Amino acid sequence: MGRERERGRELASRTHGSATTTPSVREAIQASEEKNTVLAKRYGVDRKTIAKWKARKFSSDARMGPKNPRPKFLTFDDEVIILAYRWRTRLSLDESQTQTMPQLSRSALYRCLERHGFSKIGRTNVSPPLTSASLAGPYRFEITANDVALPDVVLDVQVFLAVEEVTKHAYGEVAEATPENAAAFLARLVAEFPQKIDAVTTDIRPEFVHLREAFGEGMPEIRPHPFAIACSAKGIVHKRTLFFSRKPVSAETARHSELWD
Question: What does residue 228 show for φ and ψ, rounded to 5 degrees?
């Protein structure tokens, strides 16, 4: 009896608390060609345990818990928007929580970022303190179309993301980056934001502008761009910037980048 107790203490110190075999015993089982019943009697375990370790190609304890953990309160789209916001703004965890999903706990937001490798992405920006003057507007949003690369998804997920320049208020949608979807996104942003939006800034990609507007008269004449029509209908000034990098927002990119796209 005392020997069995000593063996149990040894197992607990090396492997999972409820394990009945050590890594060395498991390797011996995997290397043996003897019958399961013979090995079970030798090592004092059930023959099902022998069969389990013979079927495995490793001798360490398997990961406990769900194989593909999913958050309880976040949809797939929610997670992708959070990742795009974190990448674009580089704000701290606390500020990201306030602006993206204030109803989400700080720990839940951290687990989401940690799950996809975005808990540390280089430098952290600091938002200027909000004053009554800054909260009074004018309100200007930067709108981007982002490719988010997730390890368990074959194709990159495309996200429209709008971030207000001063308040860092965010609005995002998972949608294919097309001119029609960009125009529809702007309409929903206007409906969602409680104040008058004065201007939006985008890059000069096809989702937002015709190439003629970016490169001059050398391009053929075409009808007005859907995004330009949407801006005009809402009385919003549309400003254009240079191209942003379209490389996918991924954990691998985040780990090797200290700068904005």
Answer: -65, -40
Nearest by Cα to 164 from 191, 128, 197, 119: 197
Nearest CA-CA partner of 137 in 166, 169, 171: 166
Cα-to-chain-centroid distance, residue 139: 27
User: In a 3-state reduction of DSSP, which class is residue 218?
Assistant: coil
pLDDT tens digits, 126-180:
666 666 776 777 899 999 888 887 766 666 788 899 988 888 888 899 999 899 9
Residues 6 or more apart in contact with residue 158 via CB below 8 angstroms = 145, 146, 147, 148, 174, 175, 176, 177
This prediction has a pTM of 0.62
Tokens of 163: 């971030």
Cis status, amide bond into 226, omega within 30 of 0: no
The alpha carbon of residue 237 and the mean position of all alpha carbons in its chain are separated, in whole angstroms, by 31
Is the confidence at residue 13, as pLDDT, over 50? Answer: no
Element (H, E) at 197: strand 197-202
Residue 185: φ, ψ to 5°: -65, -45
Edge to edge, what strands does the sheet with 197-202 contain? 170-174, 157-164, 139-148, 197-202, 237-240
Angle between helices 76-89 and 93-100 (to 10 degrees): 130
In angstroms, what CA-CA distances link 10 with 6, 53, 176?
A: 6, 19, 56
- Token pair 């009385």 is found at 235
What does DSSP assign to residue 249?
A: B
